[in-house]
């Protein structure tokens, strides 16, 4: 959230809308309601003095240090990233090696997303996505067909 405040919630929302349109309004890329409301309210982040954090005082915002909540957030984000990486492989956009290389060298992740999926269990990733889709009813959590097939066939990426 601090990064979104730094970039600007107006810019972040506009970029998200652009991606949504570029993917032919696939519901998986639909901007979140929260992003839209922050922009409409003028809570643009640092540049407006308020965003997800209040910047009106000289105090630097403190991050929530709830470790359990942090683990849940990481797991949700990681599952969605793995799903996108799996979809890129499914659609033959890139090889598994190229996808993981892009994430380790280009984004400086500690490991590639597909290798990470193997490590934590593709079945666990699939369950997380299915649970999130059932809970929120949003296509952004729709699992890639390759994940479903791999779990059914008990396969891994590597």
From TrEMBL:
<dbReference type="InterPro" id="IPR008927">
    <property type="entry name" value="6-PGluconate_DH-like_C_sf"/>
</dbReference>
<dbReference type="GO" id="GO:0008691">
    <property type="term" value="F:3-hydroxybutyryl-CoA dehydrogenase activity"/>
</dbReference>
<feature type="domain" description="3-hydroxyacyl-CoA dehydrogenase C-terminal">
    <location>
        <begin position="75"/>
        <end position="155"/>
    </location>
</feature>
<feature type="domain" description="3-hydroxyacyl-CoA dehydrogenase C-terminal">
    <location>
        <begin position="1"/>
        <end position="55"/>
    </location>
</feature>
<dbReference type="GO" id="GO:0006635">
    <property type="term" value="P:fatty acid beta-oxidation"/>
</dbReference>
<dbReference type="Pfam" id="PF00725">
    <property type="entry name" value="3HCDH"/>
</dbReference>
<protein>
    <recommendedName>
        <fullName>3-hydroxyacyl-CoA dehydrogenase C-terminal domain-containing protein</fullName>
    </recommendedName>
</protein>
<dbReference type="InterPro" id="IPR006108">
    <property type="entry name" value="3HC_DH_C"/>
</dbReference>
């Amino acid at each position: 959230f601090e990064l979104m405040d730094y970039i600007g919630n107006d810019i972040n929302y506009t970029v998200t809308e652009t991606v949504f349109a570029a993917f032919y309004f696939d519901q998986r890329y639909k901007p979140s309601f929260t992003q839209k409301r922050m922009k409409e309210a003028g809570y643009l982040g640092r540049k407006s003095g308020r965003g997800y954090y209040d910047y009106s005082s000289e105090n630097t915002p403190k991050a929530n240090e709830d470790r359990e909540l942090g683990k849940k957030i990481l797991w949700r984000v990681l599952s969605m990233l793995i799903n996108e990486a799996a979809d890129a492989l499914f659609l033959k956009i890139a090889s598994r090696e190229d996808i993981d290389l892009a994430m380790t060298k280009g984004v400086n992740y500690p490991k590639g997303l597909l290798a990470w999926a193997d490590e934590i269990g593709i079945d666990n990733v699939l369950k997380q996505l299915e649970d999130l889709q059932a809970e929120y009813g949003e296509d952004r959590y729709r699992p890639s067909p390759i994940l479903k097939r791999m779990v059914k066939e008990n396969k891994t990426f590597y």
